[in-house]
Each structure stands twice: as structure tokens, then as C-alpha cells.
Amino acid sequence: MLAATEGIVLHFIKYGESSVIATVFTREFGRQSYMVNASRSRKSKNKAGLLQPLFLLDMEVYQKQSRDIQRVKEFKSLHAYQNIPFDIKKATQAIFLSEMLYKTIHEQESNPELYDFIKGSLLYFDLMEEGWQNFHLYFLFRLTEYFGFMPDTRKTAFESWFDLRKGAVVANEPSHPLFANKEATGHLLTLSGLKVNELGQFHISRSMRDTLLSVLVDYYQLHFENLGEIKSLNVLKEVFH
């Protein structure tokens, strides 16, 4: 079946001498793998350049439910980012988020609400001038809502800790090690109440950014047993130091 769909590039690997296999989160079919010709012609090289982390594609594909790797008839850029590919920090954030999405989105079925959230967030992130340094924290927090494990951040006492196992803010320090300290919990509560256009009001130190990032990744690892090591995590932390 020949079909049209939008897609967000999550990952790609070389296949043979003249092809790549791209993993794309599509609006119509969910997560899919596509064989893409990447021959040495100038046109093909330009096409292959579109398969970068979180690039947005407009695609015509031959979709067959029984096939693990689908075929692409044609693809082109859906929207050309203005800043992400040219800003080392934003590009590194995109690489990190693409790895997180690659390891957490597995369903091969349409999820337009999730797709539209990711696409809209990326388009806004690309043009952000203030608060973009903490966009990846905001994005990971909001993404939990679509996965069904958004933290309960209702504060129940003057002192509070975010308990990762319970997925909630608690009034007593947990007896296990999977929790955020009081300072980190306070910043997480602030972040939970912000909209993306309010991130310029969210001021934290570099060390606190690292702490919150570790808390969120640990929280995801509790919900995705096979998440494994996030290879881009240390690179992201280094870029912001």
C-alpha cells in the first residue's frame, strides 16, 4: 500500500555500501524502519543528510503490515530547522532526546497525540531564545504524561521528596535510594507547573540541571526495563559545562 505520512527521525544505521535503515516515528503508522538508498550521487547524499536526529520528514512509503523493514518511495524535509543543526548545545540536546525516544517508543501503530506533542515541542525548541537550556528536562517531564506515568507532584507537606518508585512527592524521606533530595524536588515541582514558553523563568545551576536530568532518566529506567545505558547522556552533560 502506497501511503503518505509525516515522520520524525529517531535513529539510522548504515546497511551495506549504498543504503541505510532509518527508524522513524510516523504520524500514521507509529514506529517504523525504512530502507533508504544512500548511493554516492549528489541527490542521494543530500537525501541522506535529512536522516539526522529528530529531523522532520514528509514521506511516501510502501507500507506492508507483515514486513519488518518498509520501503520508501520518496521523502523530503517537512520543516527545515533554523537553529538545532547549527547550535552545538541544541544539537546535543536533540541527539539525547532522539536516543530517549528511540528506546521508549516501540508501538507500530498510529499515536497522533504523541506525534503532535513531539513535533510541536521540537518546532518551538528550534526557535527558543530563552530557557532552551532546560528544554530537555521539560520535554522528558511532559513526555511521561503520554506514556502513562506522569509524576504526582502535589505537595503534601512543608518538606517533600520525589519518590521515584511511587512516582509521587512524599512527606517523608524514603528509606530506599531512588528519590530526589529536597532541593531537587523543589525545582522539579517548579518545572512541573511551567509551560514551554515560561522556561525562561526557570533558573537553576549547572549542577542542579545535571541532578534533575539524572533523576528523570532514572525515573524512565524504572518504567522501561530495557532502556539500558543512555550513551549520549554524558556528552550532553559535558556540553553544558
From TrEMBL:
Keyword vocabulary terms for this entry: DNA damage, DNA recombination, DNA repair
Protein name per its UniProtKB record: DNA repair protein RecO
SUPFAM superfamilies linked to this entry: ArfGap/RecO-like zinc finger (SSF57863), Nucleic acid-binding proteins (SSF50249)
Domain DNA replication/recombination mediator RecO N-terminal: 1-80
InterPro entries found in the cross-reference section: ARFGAP/RecO (IPR037278), DNA_rep/recomb_RecO_N (IPR022572), NA-bd_OB-fold (IPR012340), RecO (IPR003717), RecO_C (IPR042242)
One of the record's GO cellular component terms: bacterial nucleoid
UniProt organism field: Maribellus luteus
Top-level taxonomy: Bacteria, Pseudomonadati, Bacteroidota, Bacteroidia, Marinilabiliales
Pfam families: RecO_C (PF02565), RecO_N (PF11967)
Family per similarity comment: Belongs to the RecO family.
Keyword DNA damage: yes
Function: Involved in DNA repair and RecF pathway recombination.
Listed PANTHER family: DNA REPAIR PROTEIN RECO
Top-level taxon in the UniProt lineage: Bacteria
Name of the encoding gene: recO
